[in-house]
Structures are given as structure tokens and as C-alpha cells.
């Protein structure tokens, strides 16, 4: 069945994307997946081998760890939205080039416009650089910062824990900060309560008080 939602329409455009040369060596584009009304949007680097074969983001070993992290805060993958900074796999899993990231930018911009997440979680250096330019991940991971209309939260890429076991606990601890960040945003966005009109005390009571009784 054809998906006629805005994200479905966008995915069709991404499947046909030839804005840069990445599409030439791929099997599938990987637009992203998840809840179109997600409060949290995870943005990784780019599809790898498994993602290219299946057309789904984060479905290999790093993806399994990301799923565990999402579960650790009481959510399911279907509750959040997961995508990447580039939508086609860079050959041999090399890092995406600046011109490829730039060419892919309009897709991510449109995903953000449609989903309007409360928090953008950047996974790894490349998506971090889009929202937190000029910083190092070792300095800002686990911290949130306002980026225009969005709150952004930087995390190490889940694959980093697979290569460097000592980062696993850091990534898990950073993830556990997300529910509070989200709760604070929800509270800030709540409309201010309408003040309840206070009734002046009855005349008699006010007079008694004047005499100190
Ligand atoms: N790594 C990423 O950055 N994205 C994926 O989708 C899979 C692995």
C-alpha cells in the first residue's frame, strides 16, 4: 500500500535521490523510520552494510545497542524516530564527505519540519557537527543545548561502545538523562495556569484585625 503521509511522500523522494554520488553504490536508500509524532529523534551518521540491504536505519550490531538504550528509558523503537545525516551508505562505511552531508541536508530539514521533535539526539560526531558546530564530543556528550527551535542532546555513536568497551557505561548514563530533559521541556511548553481570583476577606474580619484580635 502506498504511504501517502508526508513522511511517506518524503521517503519516496529520498529513494530517488541523486543529489550526490552516494546512491550509485547502494542497494537501498535509508530514509529513516519511527513515530511521525516522535518527541525524540535520533540522528546517526549514515547507513552501513545491513541498513543498505534492508533499507532500515540502525538494524545491525550498533542498532541492537541503540534499541537497548531506547528500552532503558521505557520506550520502544516505534515511539521515537531514527534517521541519519546521509541517507545512502558511504562506500565501505567510510565517513560521509562534507559535500554529501550538505547535499543530504534538505531531507533532514524536511524530516525535522514534519516531525518537530522536542529533542534531537545526535549520535556521533557527524550529526553533532550539524547542531553543535566547532565542539568536541568528549566535551559535550550528555549535555543538552538549544539549537534554534530544537533542544539538541549529543551522544557518542552506539558503535563507539562496540569498538571501545569503556564508552558503554558513558553512553548508557547519557541516555538515562533524556527522560528528565524531555520532562523539563514538556513542563516549559505547558500553558501557564489561569490565576484563581482571590476573594477579599469579609469586611467584619478585616475590622477585627485592625484591633489586633
Ligand atoms: N550507523 C549509523 O550511523 N547509522 C545507521 O543507520 C547504522 C549504523
From TrEMBL:
Domain Uracil-DNA glycosylase-like, residue spans: 31-176
Domain of life where this protein originates: Bacteria
GO biological process entries: DNA repair
Family annotation (InterPro entries): UDG_Type-4/5, Ura-DNA_glyco_family4, Uracil-DNA_glycosylase-like, Uracil-DNA_glycosylase-like_sf
Protein EC: 3.2.2.27
Record carries keyword Hydrolase: yes
Top-tier EC class: hydrolase
Pfam families associated with the record: UDG (PF03167)
Keyword set includes Ligase: no
GO MF assignments: 4 iron, 4 sulfur cluster binding; metal ion binding; nucleotidyltransferase activity; uracil DNA N-glycosylase activity
Catalytic activity: Hydrolyzes single-stranded DNA or mismatched double-stranded DNA and polynucleotides, releasing free uracil
UniProt-listed SMART domains: UDG, UreE_C
Keyword vocabulary terms for this entry: 4Fe-4S, DNA damage, DNA repair, Hydrolase, Iron, Iron-sulfur, Metal-binding, Nucleotidyltransferase, Transferase
Family designation: Belongs to the uracil-DNA glycosylase (UDG) superfamily. Type 4 (UDGa) family.
PANTHER family referenced in this protein's UniProt entry, alphabetically: TYPE-4 URACIL-DNA GLYCOSYLASE (PTHR33693:SF1), TYPE-5 URACIL-DNA GLYCOSYLASE (PTHR33693)
Protein name: Type-4 uracil-DNA glycosylase
Organism: Dehalogenimonas formicexedens
